[in-house]
Each structure stands twice: as structure tokens, then as C-alpha cells.
Design a protein that fits this description.
heterodimer; A: 406 residues; 16 helices; 3 strands; 68% helix; 4% strand; globular; B: 618 residues; 7-stranded mixed beta sheet; 5-stranded antiparallel beta sheet
Chain lengths: 406, 618
């Protein structure tokens, strides 16, 4: 009896997944500790990080214990939840803004979390439920449009924030799920082409709309403030561009040419590259990174945590992290393949896609491969909302794993 | 086994490949950055965090031969500004009021020079304490402005020997590019002229270097390494401050005397005293002079303009070595010596001076300065009376000889070439000959031919002959030193950091002309009569020590005559040679001679007296 129970408990948990996640979280905590060590409120920040980890155990256990299969029938309410999460920061009395986008949920003076983070998971479940209906074969335009239409609701809302980074995560999630969910290669090609057209049209219509509505570069007040050369004047008028804001455009332009703005947006990228490159093979040692500790690195405990790692542990440290990520993704893939139904497999695939894209985007931006967006690095970056979401994702993977035979 | 798993297998494989590709791409990029280009990024990271701050080493002192401090250092409170201040109109106007300096000048001081200068520039020195206090209290209102202690030059003797000592200033863009100034900072203070410039490499100390670690805002975190500055070496010059002082006063007095003789245009001149046996310069004066302190902390545009204008007679020029004048009768010593050496004349050869000499033909007649004529003159009389006719004859003989021997002889005594004194900007003068005339008049074929009058003019130190005061005094010292012209120099020794000599006195023969002792003795004897029965007798009447020398009165077209005296003393055992020249000062015996007397008195321990003398010779 005992032996059977032990065996079933062991089989209910995926030890590889738990092990890798523990290693990642420990690794991340070490890096966050190092990154905040020179900051005035460093200790408090680190405690908040640990608190985020602890709180994260709750959604992990909750998501694990919920039978994911029940969620398949809840697409309607989930969509409402998703929409609420995304627009909640815009609701007066609830929202708070940071770095040009309203993305925080706040009640009174207490900042709760960034609702767009859990919204990613909700979107994964919604998309998995939709795509699972087609039983591994999506070839009819009508079906594809239905799926894309479903994606359009959260994506559209998130782009209105505007939060381009999270929007891209939604797209990456959906593409991964469509791949596994049976979309034919032909459609992938068409989607790719359409995507390019869309970007072109977006940039074009941005200019057109700006011109028509006299916004941004076509707004006399804005142009005057720009000519005055004073940042304060510019901030006072702010950017009234319609679709793409000035800072977003800047980030993209800097990605193309980092030397364009060495003291502004390009500065972050340059300093990050210097930090990582100067780590060389084995790094400068924990807490000994000069770029980080002397404040050359911006946002070093959040978006640029990888730059701290690269500087202090060098190529070998980066290799270790990428190996852990490989183990994480392979384990998640194993869970996906072992799922007893397509819905569970698609949830796992959504989570894999989310993590893969975030790893690519975050590490990529620190080394100049990707434009700079505010996307954190899974399990590494400081930031409790994000940590809680990732823990919940682990819970969902375990939920799929535990129920693979039942 | 549900069939969907079988169908999904290849798709999972694709997803796996995508994951591997993403991680592989990142890893590859990290490999190139961290392993292949790691050192490059490390250097950039060090650039970010390491600031090298140089600490200024005190400049070496300049002492006279007796160890008196001619130039030393003193600390001062200086206001420094970084380049950014030049663009900040608000800070500029506040600073302008505080330092009592017009905004354009302020701007000029901050930004006029070097782009490369990242360090703050000194914009004002000797800032009053209350200004320092105000700036420190209102630090935030003056971004980029700081107050710091700086060491600047102090001149205990004021303007004494200003030309010889030279002045200092911030290194120029041109200098920075030169090999000699390798390793200098764009804000270093260097010697700009005179001894300050000549002995720059010795006087300049080694800057200390402090390597600091700074954070992103530039505030220092810790000192990584530090090297102490090493101060520059002290330089001992050959000049004697006491003699220098007398020399400068004598030159000033000579200019006054000229005014007394109704030569009101006299403003400038030069005087030099050297040791005939060593070539050591004991005094070197140039008038008008300037105040070297105006260059401390940067010279203002206005001051610089006034120092380089015709109105001020270019006071920065060291006329003792840079000015080129007709030698006039002081050159007769050369003509006489050359004549004797080449057999063109003899000690007691006789000449007849009728006031107008027509040796080259009636239509080419030339006057002796004494239009009444000297009557029968020996060569010896020719020196003491400065009779032009005697030297016209000798000069004409040289012309007829066609060998340009007079010019060659003059060159062998150092004329027409640099003496090699350490000071910068020395002029070479000019000893004209046929080849020179041809090339000089390249575009005027009718003036290219060498004429008899050309040689005849050289013989009396006129025509196209140009000399520097230093060449004249060196050649007279050469006559006094039995035909060996010693190289004039101003450096006596360099002291090490322990005060001991690291570089001793030097003695070098600059020119060794071929001239017999007998002929030297003849000219020496003839020149000795100049101060007793000749044109210099008024100037040296009652002087206890016999003096050998020659007066001169140079004609310069469009200007009043230039007064010369060159000579040496004591006559029997010469020790010192002197030269005095006063531009547009009139007659040598009346103006330059009395000044030379004062210099020799000071050199030979005689009472320094001002005498007035009459002279109408040339």
C-alpha cells in the first residue's frame, strides 16, 4: 500500500520540472541579490523578491490542484476575465502608470500587480480551448479567422495600453499553439506575409493619422517643444502620436542603430552590451560587476538582470542559465507530449512559447539582437507579478502532468 | 493510445527545433561577445569606470649665477570652468559679474583653445577670498565651475630679464602635436619663450597620476592607484641679477639720453654683457620690456593685442637676439682685421680723407661722416676717428680682389649665422654677397649685379649687411679672446632634486676664425684708442679701467640713426664684452657708450655713474 502511494505521489509530481524551477529561482535570487546590493533600498527590494516567490507558491498549488480540463468549457467567462485584467489599469481608481504605459493595478496607495501578467496565462487557456476544437487540423480560412479573431480581443486591448511587448508575447503564444494545433505550413507563410504587411501599414497609417489629426510631429505645440530642445517642455506637451509613441519609435530606431542616441535609449543597450561582453569567459565574480555596481546598467534587477549575470559570471554563467532553460523547456515539452488530451498539450505548448519568446526577447535585447521592450526574464527578473505568473504556469504544467493517465 | 499524439509528434519536433534554435542563437551571440570580443568590452567597461586625474608637479625654479631666485612658484586660488560653461549663458553672466570679466572674454578663456581638453580650464587666478567663499556656498548655481589651488610663476625681481627668462602659458594645439611635447596634457602650463621655453624639458616636472573608480554619475568611489608628482628641476642661469639690473637701467637711461639729444623717436634697444673666455651671458636686456605676470592664468585678448602692436614696439621681441640692424662702424673692426689678414692694409698705412671719397670715380663719390675731411689718416687713426674713407678704400680693395674675402672673414667670426645660444627665435643676420644679391632680386634683373659700392658699404657696416646685437658682442669677445669666439649661452647648470648639480657649466668654441695674433693685437690696440682719444672718449672719460671698443651710428632709411657701442674691458686682460644698441637713438658715442660704461662698471666692480658725452661721428 505504502509503496503504491509513494509511487503515485512521485508520479504526480514531475521531479525534473520542479528541480529545474528550483535551480532557476535560486539562480535568479542570487542575481537579484547581487544586482540590488548597491542600491539604497536594496535589502527591502530583495525581501520583496523573496516575498513574491513565496506568494507565488499559492497560485502554483491552486493551478496544480485545478483540473485543467474543466477550464475548456469556460471560454466565455475567461474572455471576460482576460479583458478585465487588461483594461483594469485604465479604470480610474484602479490603475497606475509606469514608464509611459498604464500597466499597474492599484487600490488606494497599494500597488497590487501588473494584470497583463496573469492575462498571458488566461489567454493561453482561451487559445488552447479554441484551437483544441479543430482536432489537429486547421486548414479552413474560416477556422483560422475565428482563432485569430479570438486572439484579437486581448491583443487589441493590450495594444491600446499601449504595451507592445506583451502584445508580442500574445502573438508568440498563439503562433506556437497554431504550430502544434495543426495549422498547415501554407497558412504560416500567409500569416508571415500578412504580418509584414501589417507592420508596414501600421507605420504608414501612423504617419497618415498623425498628419490627419495633427498629432505628434504634426502637432504645432509638440514641434515647438521639440525645437526648444528642452526635455521638460517636451514632457509637458507629451507625445500625441496616434498609434506608435515617440519612445516606442526611439527604441526601434536605436535597435537598428545603437549609436543613434548614446545618452538616451541607446545608452541602455550600449551599457548592457559592455557589461555582458566584459564578463568574458568566467565573469568578474559575484557582486564584483563594475557596470552594475557603479550604476552604468539601468534597470539592472528587472529587465537587465541578464546583463548582471553576464558580467559577473561570464560566458560560463550564461551557458549554465541557457542549459537550465533548455532543461525547463524540454521538460515542458515532455509534459506536452505526455498530455492525455490536445487541450492539455496546447496549454503546455502555450507556456513553452511564452517562455521561449520571453527568453529570446529579454536576453536578445541585452545583447542587441532584439529591440528593447520591457519584457522580463522568466524566473530571473525581479518583479513579483511576473514571478507569480510564472509560478502559476508551473502549476498548470504540473496539472497537465499529474492528470496524464486519469 | 489516442491518435492525436502520433499526429503531433513531428510538430513537437518542430517546436523543439525552434527552442533549440533560439537558445543556440543566443549562445552563439554570447560566445562572440564574451569570448571573442571580451577584451574589447572589458576595455570599454574600464573606460567607463576609471578616471585618470593628473596632479600637477611644481615647475622648477630659475636662479641667477649667484643663486638668487629669478622665477619661482606661488600658490593661488584659481577658478576653473569646464567646456560646458561656455554654452551656459546664465552661468556665464553670473561668473562675469563675480570675476569682473566681460562675457566674451570669459567665453574665450573657456573655449578658445583645444577641443581635446576635457579637463576644466583656469579662467581666473588670484581670486579674492570672498569670491571663493561665494562660489563654494553657491556651488549648485555654478555647474561646471570649481575653485582649486594652483601653482603659478612668481617673479621676485618683477620684470627683470623678462625677455631672457620668458613667460609661461597653457600649451598650444601646435605644441601638443610636436614630438617634444609627447605625453603632455592639454591643460599643462609650459614655457612659451626665453629660458622657460628653452629649458622646458628640465623645468617641467613629472605629473602625478591618480586613477579613480567612478560611478555612472562620475562621483569617485575609490582610488585604484596613485603616483606622486615629481617637481621640475631648478635651472641656474649665467646671468647676474645685479648686472642685469644695471644693464636694464643703463639701456633705459640711454633711451632717455637720446631724447635729450633730440632723438625723440628712440624707444627700443638692446644690451648684452658676456664673459669673453666662456661665452656666458651675464646680462641681456631688450627694450621695451613687458610684464610676464600678465600671462599668468591666461592672457586676455586685449593684452595680447597690445603686446603685438606697432604702437607698443613689440615688447615681446627679444631684440638682443632677434633684431637685425646695420652694424655701422662697429663692423669696422671686422673690415680692419680682414684687411690686415688679407694684406689689403697695414697698421701704419696712410689714407687721405677729404670728406668726399671718389675712389670708384667722380660720379660715385661717397662722403665720410666728417664732411670736412680727416686729412691724413693711418689705419689706427681710422679706428679712433671712425674715418669712413679709410674703410672705403679697404672695402674697394676687397671688391677689386673679387674673392668676397671680406664676407667670408665676417662669416668666420659668426656673422650671417646663428650663434647657437639656447634661446629660441635667434636671427641669423645677413652678410650679403653676389649670389645673395642675385637671388634676392630675382624679379629685378637690373639690380642683380654686385657693384663696387656693395662691398664698400659692407666695409663701413652699412648696405645690405644685417647683424644681431648678440653677433656683435660675440665677435668683439672673440677679438678679446685671441680669436676664439665662444658660444654665447645662458645655462650655467641644472640642479637635481637634492640641490646638487646634475649638469655642469659648458664652454664651447662657436667660431674659430683664421686670424693672426699680430693682426688681432693691431686692431685691439687701435680699438683701445677709441675710448681715450677717439669717438668714445666722452663716454669713458675718467673710467678707472681701460676699455677697448668701437662706437657706431647706423643709418636706416626712413628712420633716425641707430646708436651702437661694442667693446670689452679691461683692455690689457679682457674679461667682459658688452654691446649696446638704441634704435633711432642717434650717435653711438653719445648714447650707447655711456650705457656700456655703466654695464662695465657694474661688471668690474666700479661705481656705476651716468655720464653725458658728445659724439657726431658715425
Amino acid at each position: 500500500m505504502m509503496a503504491v502511494q509513494e509511487r503515485s505521489a512521485f508520479r504526480a509530481v514531475n521531479p525534473a520540472l520542479v528541480g529545474v524551477v528550483v535551480l532557476l529561482v535560486v539562480f535568479g535570487s542570487v542575481m537579484v541579490r547581487s544586482a540590488v546590493s548597491g542600491m539604497t533600498a536594496g535589502d527591502a527590494l530583495f525581501q520583496r523578491h523573496l516575498l513574491g516567490l513565496t506568494i507565488g507558491l499559492i497560485p502554483l498549488v491552486v493551478a496544480w490542484s485545478i483540473d485543467y480540463r474543466k477550464l475548456q468549457g469556460w471560454v466565455g467567462p475567461l474572455l471576460l476575465l482576460d479583458a478585465f485584467l487588461i483594461i483594469s489599469p485604465k479604470i480610474p481608481g484602479l490603475g497606475a502608470s509606469a514608464k509611459g504605459a498604464q500597466s499597474w493595478l492599484q487600490i488606494g496607495d497599494i500597488r497590487l500587480f501588473q494584470p497583463s501578467e496573469p492575462a498571458k496565462l488566461v489567454t493561453i487557456v482561451i487559445m488552447a480551448a479554441i484551437i483544441a476544437q479543430y482536432q489537429c487540423s486547421i486548414d479552413r480560412p474560416k477556422d483560422l479567422f475565428k482563432i485569430l479573431g479570438m486572439l484579437g480581443i486581448p491583443l487589441g486591448l493590450i495594444l491600446l495600453q499601449p504595451d507592445l511587448g506583451t502584445g508580442l508575447v500574445f502573438v508568440a503564444i498563439t503562433l506556437g499553439m497554431l504550430l502544434v494545433g495543426g495549422l498547415t505550413p501554407r497558412w504560416f507563410l500567409i500569416l508571415g506575409a500578412a504580418g509584414l504587411l501589417l507592420v508596414g501599414a501600421l507605420l504608414g497609417s501612423n504617419t497618415g493619422l498623425n498628419r490627419a489629426l495633427q498629432r505628434g510631429d504634426y502637432d504645432p505645440a509638440y514641434v515647438a517643444a521639440k525645437a526648444s530642445g528642452s526635455q521638460a517642455a517636451l514632457d509637458a506637451v507629451d507625445d500625441t502620436s496616434v498609434l506608435i509613441k515617440r519612445y516606442q519609435m526611439n527604441r526601434l530606431l536605436v535597435f537598428v542603430d545603437p549609436t543613434r542616441d548614446p545618452s538616451g535609449a541607446g545608452y541602455n543597450l550600449e551599457q548592457s552590451k559592455i557589461a555582458i561582453g566584459s564578463g568574458e569567459l568566467s565573469g568578474k565574480g559575484l557582486k564584483s560587476g563594475t557596470q552594475g555596481n557603479l550604476n552604468f546598467l539601468p534597470e539592472r534587477h528587472t529587465d537587465f538582470i541578464f546583463s548582471v549575470l553576464g558580467e559577473e559570471f561570464g560566458f560560463l554563467g550564461a551557458l549554465a542559465l541557457l542549459a537550465l532553460y533548455l532543461a525547463l523547456l524540454v521538460t515542458a515539452l515532455e509534459i506536452a507530449t505526455s498530455s492525455r488530451d490536445l487541450f492539455g498539450a496546447l496549454i503546455a505548448v502555450g507556456i513553452i512559447s511564452m517562455w521561449t519568446f520571453q527568453i529570446l526577447e529579454n536576453i536578445g535585447m541585452t545583447i542587441g539582437l532584439m529591440p528593447i521592450t520591457g519584457i522580463p526574464l522568466p524566473f530571473m527578473s525581479f518583479g513579483s507579478s511576473f514571478m507569480v505568473t510564472n509560478m502559476a504556469a508551473v502549476g498548470m504544467l504540473l496539472s497537465v502532468w499529474t492528470r496524464r493517465y486519469s | 493510445m489516442p491518435t492525436f499524439r502520433e499526429r503531433l509528434k513531428p510538430r513537437f519536433a518542430i517546436l523543439g527545433v525552434v527552442v533549440l534554435a533560439v537558445l543556440g542563437l543566443l549562445l552563439f551571440r554570447l560566445w562572440t561577445m564574451q569570448v571573442l570580443s571580451g577584451e574589447e568590452f572589458s576595455a570599454r567597461a574600464d573606460d567607463n569606470r576609471i578616471r585618470e586625474v593628473t596632479t600637477i608637479a611644481p615647475r622648477g625654479r630659475i636662479l641667477d649665477r649667484k643663486g638668487r631666485e629669478l622665477v619661482t612658484n606661488r600658490p593661488t586660488m584659481a577658478v576653473l570652468a569646464s567646456r560646458s560653461v561656455a554654452e551656459d549663458q546664465r552661468v556665464l553672466s553670473k561668473l562675469s559679474a563675480l570675476l569682473d570679466m566681460p562675457v566674451p572674454e570669459l567665453k574665450d578663456r573657456i573655449s578658445s583653445v583645444k577641443e581635446a581638453a576635457l579637463a576644466s580650464r583656469v579662467i581666473a587666478i588670484d581670486v579674492p577670498m570672498e569670491t571663493v567663499a561665494y562660489l563654494s556656498e553657491h556651488e549648485t548655481e555654478f555647474p561646471g565651475v570649481e575653485v582649486a589651488t594652483r601653482s603659478v610663476r612668481r617673479y621676485p625681481y618683477g620684470q627683470l630679464a623678462a625677455h631672457l627668462l620668458g613667460y609661461t602659458g597653457e600649451i598650444s594645439e601646435d605644441q601638443l602635436a610636436q614630438q617634444d611635447f609627447q605625453g603632455y596634457d592639454p591643460t599643462d602650463v609650459v614655457g612659451k619663450s626665453g629660458a622657460e621655453s628653452s629649458f622646458e624639458s628640465v623645468l617641467q616636472g613629472d605629473r602625478g597620476l591618480r586613477r579613480l573608480e567612478v560611478d555612472a554619475s562620475g562621483s569617485p568611489q575609490k582610488i585604484i592607484s596613485e603616483t606622486e608628482p615629481e617637481s621640475g628641476r631648478d635651472v641656474v642661469l649665467t646671468i647676474d641679477a645685479r648686472v642685469q639690473k644695471v644693464t636694464e637701467q643703463a639701456l633705459a637711461q640711454a633711451i632717455k639720453d637720446a631724447h635729450g639729444d633730440k632723438y625723440y623717436k628712440a624707444k627700443a634697444g638692446a644690451a648684452i654683457a658676456i664673459d669673453v673666455r666662456t661665452g656666458e651671458v651675464l646680462a641681456m636686456a631688450s627694450a621695451p620690456t613687458y610684464d610676464p605676470t600678465v600671462f599668468l592664468g591666461g592672457v586676455s585678448e586685449k593684452e595680447w593685442r597690445s603686446l603685438n602692436s606697432t604702437d607698443s614696439e613689440f615688447p615681446l621681441t627679444n631684440r638682443a637676439i632677434q633684431a637685425q640692424y646695420p652694424a655701422a662702424s662697429t663692423f669696422k673692426a671686422m673690415t680692419g682685421l680682414a684687411g690686415l689678414q688679407y694684406g689689403m692694409t697695414r697698421q701704419w698705412a696712410t689714407y687721405t680723407c677729404q670728406g668726399r671719397w671718389t675712389g670708384m670715380g667722380e660720379q660715385w663719390g661717397k662722403y665720410c661722416w666728417n664732411h670736412a675731411g680727416h686729412g691724413t689718416e693711418t689705419l689706427m687713426d681710422g679706428f679712433s676717428d671712425s674715418c669712413d674713407t679709410v674703410f672705403y678704400e679697404i672695402g674697394y680693395d676687397f671688391y677689386k680682389d673679387k674673392g668676397e674675402k671680406l664676407q667670408k672673414f665676417a662669416r668666420s667670426f659668426g656673422y650671417g649665422q646663428l650663434t647657437g645660444i639656447e634661446l629660441g627665435g635667434e636671427a641669423a643676420g645677413r652678410v650679403p654677397d653676389a649670389a645673395w644679391k642675385k637671388s634676392y632680386n630675382e624679379n629685378y634683373p637690373e639690380y642683380q649685379r654686385w657693384l663696387p659700392g656693395d662691398t664698400v658699404n659692407i666695409a663701413i657696416g652699412q648696405g645690405d649687411l644685417l647683424v644681431t646685437p648678440l653677433q656683435v658682442v660675440a665677435s668683439y669677445a672673440g677679438i678679446a679672446n685671441k680669436g676664439k669666439v665662444m658660444k654665447p649661452h645662458v645655462l650655467r647648470k641644472v640642479l637635481g632634486s637634492d640641490g646638487k648639480t646634475v649638469l655642469g657649466p659648458t664652454k664651447e668654441v662657436a667660431f674659430a676664425p683664421k686670424v693672426s695674433k699680430k693682426n688681432l693685437d693691431i686692431v685691439d690696440g687701435a680699438l683701445a684708442r677709441v675710448t681715450t682719444i677717439g669717438t668714445g672718449q666722452g663716454a669713458f672719460r675718467g673710467f678707472a679701467i681701460p676699455v677697448t671698443g668701437k662706437t657706431g651710428t647706423a643709418e636706416v632709411s626712413g628712420k633716425d640713426d641707430y646708436a651702437w657701442f661694442a667693446g670689452y674691458a679691461p683692455s690689457n686682460k679682457p674679461k667682459y664684452a658688452v654691446v649696446v644698441v638704441v634704435e633711432q637713438g642717434g650717435h653711438g658715442g653719445a648714447v650707447a657708450g655711456p650705457a656700456a660704461r655703466q654695464m662695465l662698471a657694474s661688471l668690474l666692480g666700479q661705481p656705476v655713474e651716468h655720464v653725458t658725452a658728445q659724439d657726431s661721428s658715425r
